[in-house]
Amino acid sequence: MKKILAVTACPTGIAHTYMAAEALQEAAKQKNVDIKVETRGAVGVENELTPEEIHEAHAIILAVDVDVNEERFKGKNVIKVGVAEAIKDANGLIEQAISMKAKTVDYREQVEAIKAERSAERTGVYKHLMNGVSNMLPLVVAGGLIIAISFIFGIKAFDPNDPSYNPIAKALMDIGGGSAFALMVPVLAGYIAFSIAGKPGLAPGLVGGMLASKIGAGFLGGIIAGFLAGYVAKWLRDYIKLPRNFAGLVPILIIPFFSTLIVGLLMIFVIGTPVKSIMDALTGWLTSLSSANAVILGLILGAMMAFDMGGPVNKTAYTFAVGLLGSNVFAPMAAVMAAGMTPPLGLWLATLIAPKKFTNEEREAGKAASILGISFITEGAIPFAAADPLRVIPAIVAGSAVTGALSMYFGATLRAPHGGIFVLFIPNAVGNLLMYTVSIIVGTIVTALLVSVLKTRKNEQ
């Protein structure tokens, strides 16, 4: 029997979310179709779909008017409509889902599916942290690039008191630094809390993150504020029970008020100051690193980026570098970005210099891996690593470690935490552009040579 999954969500999350879910379940029951419906209402996610269920599903119906993390459905048949259509024509949606043909998956879709599966498999603290980081990234990318563009007019051109002052540079700095970067930590904290408690966690998380920024506790304070807000809101949600007629007040009034008050007071009087001291010490250490220590840090960050190719170790290094952008420390970001590109690039190069050690399918996959590599999609190396982990993983770790170390040694910097090779063409986005590029090329060659040496001919295996 074909299994259908569905997600329902409306902006208020009180009535239509559940009406659409009931309509789909009733229509599926009448047609003897197996269905599971995830609801995303005001009280958070209920009946959540698991990675195994998504993998086995024939099609997914998204009856939603808000964002519901569609990345996890990559490679599957998806029907997307508003909740109103699911309420009006649930029978038609079920019939449409059943009649869809099974999708075939190419190499890039396979990589995207692996990424989505990994994302869905995240649990606990790691899942909540990654939810905050992923929602913060667009602000960091946009803000970093706009600030970099402002430097075209001069490093101090945004300052009205400097002789090089230019009003366009000031406008760009206000957009990138004064607005986008100012929202980084609040959004990080807000979406960590959202991941833990759903909508009720968003308000205390955003406020806690804003307080962390004002106090100077940086991204570390934002992370603590996010987890604090999430678990306070979740506790209130789970333990405050009112009569049915007043239940709607819990998610829209009682939880936001008390959780925001509790988190705000704790951030101001208990948590903020000591975390600020830690951030000041970390920033001071990173800005005064000797060449040897910088190389060691780059070596470690680079190796972490390739070790599990988008997994928890990779994301730990990435999050560390992204968080430092808010403290104007840009060298670790350059090392991490460069090191994340070399695994798929090195494997692509290996398929060119040692083609007899790869199957026809792998040589074709190498072409796609080159595109994924220059786009900073480290997961492009996963199909190769999965097929031959003992040879491929040490080779890509070594190449990325060399790239990270060289980038730190040359003092390369990067203001945007994504974009792959494309950020190289944006003026001032990359510091010491020439040697940054050399670092990527050297790491790619190291990976390719090691893979070529370690792998055996296919007819010898």
UniProtKB/TrEMBL annotation:
Entry-linked PROSITE patterns: PTS_EIIB_TYPE_2 (PS51099), PTS_EIIC_TYPE_2 (PS51104)
Domain PTS EIIB type-2: start-end pairs: 2-99
Pfam family, one: PTS_EIIC
Transmembrane spans: 136-155, 175-194, 215-236, 248-272, 284-309, 329-353, 392-412, 433-454
Sorted UniProt keywords: Cell membrane, Kinase, Membrane, Phosphoprotein, Phosphotransferase system, Sugar transport, Transferase, Transmembrane, Transmembrane helix, Transport
InterPro entries: Bacterial_PTS_Sugar_Transport, PTS_EIIB-like_sf, PTS_EIIB_2, PTS_EIIB_2/3, PTS_EIIC, PTS_EIIC_2, PTS_IIB_fruc, PTS_IIC_fruc
Stated name of the protein: PTS system D-fructose-specific IIB component (F1P-forming) (Frc family) /PTS system D-fructose-specific IIC component (F1P-forming) (Frc family)
Species of origin: Tepidibacillus fermentans
